Amino acid sequence: MRDWFKGGEPWIWMTAGAVALSLVMVYAVVWLTAARGLVHWWPKPVVETTYKEADGRVVRLIGEVREREEVAVVRLREQGYNIDTQDAYTHRYLFKLGNKDITGVDFKWFPAPNLGQFTYPRDLITIERREWGNFYGHLKAVKQEGQVVAEGDAAWEEAQKRLERGTALFREALRLEKVDIGRINYQLERLRLRERKLMLQGRLTEADKAEFARQRDKLNADYGVLQERLDRVRHDLERDSLMVETMEGQVVEIPFAKIADLYMPNAMNTLQKAGFYARKFWEFISDDPREANTEGGIFPAIFGTVMMVLLMSVMVTPLGIMAAVYMREYAKQGPLIRTIRISVNNLAGVPSIVYGVFGLGFFVYVLGGSIDELFFPEALPAPTFGSPGILWASLTLAILTLPVVIVATEEGLSRVPRSVREGSLALGATKAETLWRIVLPMASPAMMTGLILAVARAAGEVAPLMLVGVVKLAPSLPVDGNFPFIHLERKFMHLGFHIYDVGFQSPNVEAARPLVYATALLLVIIIVVLNLAAISMRNHLREKMRGLEGV
Amino acid sequence: MEKIETNISKVGGYTGRRMAKDKLFKHVMTFGGLSVIIAISAIFFYLASVVLPIFMPASMDEFKRLPLPAAQSGVVHYAAEELAEVGMRFQADGKVDFFDLRNGKALGGDRITPPAGVKITTFAAGDPSQKVVAYGMDNGHMLLARQAYQVSFHPNPKDPTKDIRSIKPSIDHPLGEAPIAVDPQGRALRLLTVQSSDEGTTAIALTEDGRLVMTAITSRTNLITGEVSTESESVELPLPQNGEIRQLLLEVKQRDLYVLHGDRQVSHYDVMNKSSPRLVQTVEVAPAGERVTAATLLSGGYSLILGTDKGNLTQWFQVRDKDNNNHLTRIRDFKPMRHAVTVIAPEHFRKGFIVGDAKGDVGLYYATSRRHLLTRSSGSEPVQVLALAPRANAALVQNTDGALQTASIKNDYPEVSFYATWQKVWYESYQEPEYVWQSSAATSDFEPKFSVAPLTFGTLKAAFYAMLVAIPLAVMGAIFAAYFMSPRMRSVVKPSIEIMEALPTVILGFLAGLWLAPFVDNNLAGTLLAIFLLPFSFLLSAYIWHRLPVSFTQRVGPGWEAALLILPIILTIWLAIELGHTIEAAFFGGNMPHWVTNELGWTYEQRNSLVVGIAMGFAVIPNIFSIAEDAVFSVPKHLTSGSLALGATPWQTLWNVVLPTASPGIFSAIMVGLGRAVGETMIVLMATGNTAVMDLSIFTGFRTLSANIGVEMPEAAVGTTHYRLLFFSALVLFAFTFLVNTAAELVRQRLREKYSTL
Predict the structure, then answer these.
(1) Going by DSSP bridges, is the β-strand pair B180-181/B141-154 parallel, antiparallel, or unpaired?
(2) With 70 as the cut, is the pLDDT of residue B12 above it?
(3) B19 touches chain A (CB under 8 A)
(4) Does residue B353 have a pLDDT over 90?
(5) How far is B553 from chain A (nearest CA, A)?
(6) pLDDT tens-digit profile of B260-318?
């Protein structure tokens, strides 16, 4: 035993333990995100049970069980629960009760000893509403203009049909409102700015004024027509409603205009559930968020992230490659360039929030402010580029990721064997030709690696973005059908910020939690895939270059 | 080579074009590359340029005489409007002169006229932010007036984009033009103090027969007729014990009255209840033999600034003790003026003030930061009347010679001093000096609290706990991975660590805040037990492995210990968590966080340093790991082979040969990790409560510099002290991480050189 200790074997195991613990931590994080994120789209059964209140009353509970955990009975008693047990520990269940507009409580913990038998009646219905979150209850009847058209078992069939109609109408109303009326508002605003610009330049003539007034009248007339159509659609939407019984026994009428989706999870079989899963997943990545981001999809966040990363790539790639080529191929290799190289390396270690501060101060306030004064004086004092937006966010992240691209490109350039360059030069090619035709193509996988790493870093970075352009809810995407189609000055949504905002700033964190896990899972997948791609590309490149060196 | 190039470039045609292209390419690359490098280094200079102004001293122009017509009677008060373009002069006889503050041009005037046969006996100015003045008369009444400045814009015939601004000064009367009775007995008013706001008006006067009278007036506007009806209530105040009453100071909220009497006594009255005011206490505010010669209230009405005939300046305010009694307390002393203080005037919105002395010197001070900003001479005559413009960007001074002098002031960042940012500061309404960071509040007379100490402390605390987790795991892991691990396992471990490095911190922060924090809260004993048990589980597993038959262990071979340990780790953690609740039930009353709070008396927060330490340790491990692994791995093989050949065991070789050689590299890895931990934002933002407290406890949270920037930067108004201090935090983070990383890089380079010579 003493020899065993003296030989150092146990210490080797201790170091091994450190590696193993790190591995466990990494995979635990990935697993935790995946396990919690993946269940988000699965229809959760709705439980019906009873609960004994502190005063002995027994009430009915209807809701989804969200969590179950072991808890000290002392803690529960401290919280005022009346628990009849000898054990020190018991379990408690977190119920999502929904019906927030009626009861005011969405989530509530219930200690297990006071709960009755869990049952899963097949006629329990989950209604995803456009406001106030989910609704749970027994489906009673379907009404049209206040008259009952279907009751009992027939109601479900009827409800599905009416939901389809309601959804179609809702989509139409949304399109009218967002796209058509949105376009008119946008054009009116542009008209106002054009007029003001002319006025500021002192070139506004009476003829111009008349022309502007004419155009404005025309737009307003169009607006009137659209508004009328919208009102009609909205009126149609009000036609049908659903009668549902809550857990308190109250029968509530819910108009289809308020219903986003409805399903009977207890009556679904596995295949139906799988189909539901696929549909919900698609909704998640293609829909707009609802209810202060805690429900619905995250499409704008995905779009914003992708667009920002694309913009950033367009900026960072040429700049990074140029700097790397200069430092490796043209600059005189001396102490100065070594210092610069170290500094560039170290910039990668500077906290990202510092870049955010720089971006806000310099890009937004200084650059953006000057751009506004020079090119958009008509909109002042409302800022155009002088407030955070996607352009400045991508520029800030481009600077943030520049060191990554430079370092990777330099490494790629340094790995191109001397023999290859010399061969090219010996055949009479100029240095530029050698670089352009031989060296850069050979180093291009390295550049790609750098770019992928930069993209992965940018996609996951949040701290600087909070300062330079990310918002919790952007009213419109940076790309739309209105001229000039790409609006770089607009604020945008971002996956990482979405996680922070919904998980920590939202009024109903508990309700949003599954969605945050799902978003986190999406982000983790994107980043892990990007990084694995970069790693395998780099390994492949190293192998190839090693092969070349022998030639 | 160069010669050939020049020769070739002379050749025309195709080759010439190629040469030109070559040159062009070179220039483009050089220009582009250099501009990128310059642009990157511009970050530092830009941050520094934003920060620099807060370190610039305040400045004040030379005093300039304004050619105003001489006042017929004495001047009692000066006032200026917001933009410091128009001024007002109040004379003792009720005459008011308007003038252009920039060149002294007369702009007309007004007159506050007492009724026939009544004489003005005294004057009082309310809080400068309310712009109210009052004249007391010999019939016990006062005339209340208010400065008004009407700003209007006219189109500019020359430039349509810029309108011309004109400011029209006037005098209006918030409670009507009629005199208001202050003393119901109608005796002449000798001293007066008045405050008037939308909530009401209070006037307190010393009458010629030595009584102290308070009159409170509340006005109501009839919503239908628009008629203003007033109600007034008068009451006599108890007189202070001894000494002649020399000055009355009612604070702006009309709750407290300070009476200066005798040589050096201040009596504090609570006048919040207008029908039953009471004398709270009398305090000696200067040492014997010194006489208080000037007093004023700072903006907000909380602090009293007193100046003496020796030039000493002190700040006083009420401090609440344990029994909820208020005591007027001496808070801080300022650098004295050289001569007797004659007059003090407060800034309108900040906690600054300006002081005039008997030899014409004017000093500018800031209370919170205890700063004496500058002193200027306005001549050799004693300063008689003193005022600051609302934005504190101009001073109006009149000496006994009667001429008005003005000077513009540039004093944008008086709140910052070493004392205010790094030491305990006694803020208004605090019971004792404290370190506080509180940059903004809803009220306009709020005292900003810019102590960077708790933020720096929080940053270091976060880094400390993160490193506590990260250093052992990462360094030991790196040693194993570089030295003992089998190559096949390495090919799995290294990408895993890279993934670990790439995981967005927002995910780590989110899991830490929403999953780990509640989990630890519910399983505190289990978590601590797991941390404690893990090393023993490694040892136990090692011993069991050691005792297994060699024929079996040989088949696995060395270098796979880490893989073998994964199962024991999971088992240990599971076991500890399972045991945790039993332990809590047995020893901690079933609720360990509760026990920590009640029995140990420590503050316990759910989002605490333990959670951050684990989460941020997780984020830092890969940084340290990769660099340390590289350092250990590149130790030349012949060194280790030599050691092993001489009979040392692998561990002995590692301990005595490899580690001494690689230690600079490991050190540099730790430095890089520290740099990362100090600047990390999202994890601390999400996994702590972000309260700026200063204690080392593992069960409390903190607020770091980086999180503070993330939270406050979007709201900070451009160019303010707050904005620049946030930039300062960013600059400090930048400089710190840059220096640490550079040092680490230099260490590594030297190490590489050493390896190549070995």
Answers:
(1) antiparallel
(2) no
(3) yes
(4) yes
(5) 14
(6) 998 889 999 999 888 888 899 999 999 988 999 999 999 888 899 999 999 999 999 99
Q: B496 vs A20: CB contact, 8 Å cut-off?
A: no
Chain B residues inside the 8 Å CB shell of A23 = 493, 496, 562, 566
Query: Quick one: tokens of A196?
Result: 């003001």
Average pLDDT, chain B: 88
Residue B118 φ/ψ, nearest 5 degrees: -105, 140
A130-150 burial, b at 16+ Cβ within 10 Å, e below that, comes to: eeebbbbbbbbbbbeeeeeeb
**B163 pLDDT tier (thresholds 50, 70, 90):** confident
| pLDDT, tens digit (0-9, with 9 covering 90-100), for A334-388 | 888 888 888 888 888 889 999 999 999 999 999 988 888 888 877 777 788 888 8
pLDDT band at B1 (very low <50, low <70, confident <90, very high): very low
Q: Which residues contact B578 (CB under 8 A, 6 or more apart)?
A: B526
DSSP B62: P
Backbone φ and ψ of B147, nearest 5°: -75, 140
> What distance in Å separates the CA atoms of residue B586 and residue B592, rounded to the nearest whole number?
10
Tokens of B264: 């050096």
**Is A346 close to B742, i.e. CB distance below 8 A?**
yes
Ranges of beta strands (E only) in B239-340 are: 245-250, 256-261, 265-270, 278-284, 292-297, 304-308, 313-320, 326-334
Q: How far apart are CA A378 and CA A355, in angstroms?
A: 31
Average pLDDT over residues B247-253: 91
Point out which residues pair with B249 in neighbouring strands.
B258
Single out the residue of A112, A459, A231, A189 nearest to residue B503, CA to CA: A459
How much is the CA Rg of chain B, to the nearest whole Å?
Answer: 37
Which stretches in chain A have pLDDT values below 70?
548-551
The CATH number of B453-755 is 1.10.3720.10
- Cut 0.90: pTM above it: no
Cβ–Cβ gap B590/A22 under 8 Å: no
Mean pLDDT calculated for residue range B167-186: 87
Residue B226 has pLDDT above 70, yes or no: no
Q: Is A532 on the interface with B (CB under 8 A)?
A: yes
What pLDDT, on the 0 to 100 scale, is given for residue B440? Answer: 77
Q: Give residue for tokens 């202060």.
A: A292
Find the residue in B nearest to A88 (Cα).
B585
CA distances from B437 to A466, B28, B286, B608, B714 (A): 21, 49, 32, 19, 17
Task: Give the span between the Cα atoms of B748 and B758, in whole angstroms.
Answer: 15
Give me the pLDDT at residue A376, please.
83
CA dist list (Å): A209 to A190, A198, A217? 14, 10, 12
Q: Is the pLDDT of residue B726 over 70?
A: yes
Distance (Å, rounded) from C-alpha A21 to C-alpha B284?
A: 67
Contact indicator for B710, A491 with CB cutoff of 8 Å: no
User: Does A271 reach chain B within 8 Å, measured CB to CB?
Assistant: no
Does B3 have pLDDT greater than 80?
no
Question: Which residues lie below 8 Å from residue A199, measured CB to CB, with a gap of 6+?
Answer: B160
Cis previous bond, B382, omega within 30: no
Fold of A299-549: MetI-like fold (1.10.3720)
Nearest to B590 among A11, A73, A200 (CB): A73
| Packed helices B721-757 and A335-347: angle between N→C axes, nearest 10 degrees | 120
The predicted structure's pLDDT at residue B13? 76
Residues 6+ apart with CB under 8 A from A521: A33, A34, A36, A37, A38
Q: So what's the pLDDT on residue B2?
A: 47
Q: Which of A256, A277, A267 is nearest to A124 (CA)?
A: A267
Chain A touched by B21 (CB under 8 Å): yes
Interchain contact, A346 vs B745, CB within 8 Å: yes
